[in-house]
Amino acid sequence: MKKTFLLSLFLLSSSFALTLGQTPPAVVIDGKYGGKVDGTAWDSKMLKGKVYVLFYVDPDKKDLNEPFTEALKARNFPHDKYASVAIVNMAATWMPNFAIEAKLRAKQKKYPNAIYVRDKKKVLVKKWALEDNNSDILVFDKTGKLIFQYAGKLDDGQIQNVLSLIEHNLNK
Questions:
Q1: Which residue in 79, 74, 101 sits closest to 88, CA to CA?
Q2: Strands 146-151 and 135-140
């Protein structure tokens, strides 16, 4: 009984489902767990001061929400109010890390205003209970509160709703 209670307590403390309207528990990804493409740590506390769209993606599902990505680019939101973060769930694929890292470095050069992060140990699957082997999309307001979360492919109506939500929060 005591062992079961302690195991349950451990599992509850190591994984938190995110709640809309709340700031998620702080997470740092660095060292053997990954980090930004430039080798520095990524800290979720940086998701403040702008409206952030965070993509948490299995490399095998990288094109699943391409229509949403293209719609974001077309809106050309001002970089002083908006930013995006792409975190790649590197443990969710058969692809070798060196190949993924090379692609991420190229993307970072092509899109310098985006932040590219490597998650080598499914940190956000474990800490934020994000879906594994999928394409997760999260939107944070300027205070760092989660205002949208979805796993899977967004349809056209959902894309328009998320774009409106972002635009509304840019003007707050």
A1: 101
A2: antiparallel
**Lookup: tokens for 162:** 């998320």
pLDDT for position 16: 61
The rounded distance, in Å, linking the Cα atoms of 14 and 126 is: 7
Domains of the chain: 2-170 (3.40.30.10)
DSSP for 142-161, written as a single string: TTS-EEEEEES---HHHHHH
CA-based nearest residue to 115, from 123, 104, 126 = 104
d(C-alpha 35, C-alpha 117), whole Å: 5
DSSP result, 7-50: HHHHHHHH-----TTSPPPP-EE-GGGEEETTS--EEGGG--SS
Distance CA 80, CA 25 (A): 25
pLDDT in tens, 104-135: 888 888 888 899 999 999 999 999 999 999 99
